[in-house]
Amino acid sequence: MNALSKAVVLIALTSSSAAFAFEALDFDTLDVDENGVISQVEASEDAELLNSFAERDTDQNGELSKEEFSKA
């Protein structure tokens, strides 16, 4: 496989991974119990969200509202 082919494959893989990551960050997808907030357990499905959970949880109630989720 030549360098150009490898680059195209790498770009394709990176693009598809980014699409899955974006989809995983959808509020409604993460709000599994559909109670209007994302708990830390629900956030654990997405490592990036879990890592930023405390920062986003501005009212420190252990849940992310849609407003808190949207702020990053």
Description:
Residues 54-72 have a biased composition (Basic and acidic residues). Residues 44-72 form the EF-hand domain. This is Calmodulin. Residues 53-72 are annotated as: Disordered. It comes from Pseudoalteromonas prydzensis. This protein is mainly alpha-helical and 72 residues long. It has one domain (3-70): Orthogonal Bundle (Recoverin, domain 1), CATH 1.10.238. The protein is built from 6 helices and 2 strands. A two-stranded antiparallel ribbon has the order 1-2.
Q: What tags apply to this protein structure?
A:
72 residues, mainly alpha, Recoverin, domain 1, two-stranded antiparallel sheet, 6 helices, globular, EF-hand-dom_pair, signal
Sequence-ordered SSE layout with sheet pairings:
Layout: H1 3-24, H2 27-30, E1 38-39, H3 40-43, H4 47-51, H5 53-56, E2 63-64, H6 66-70
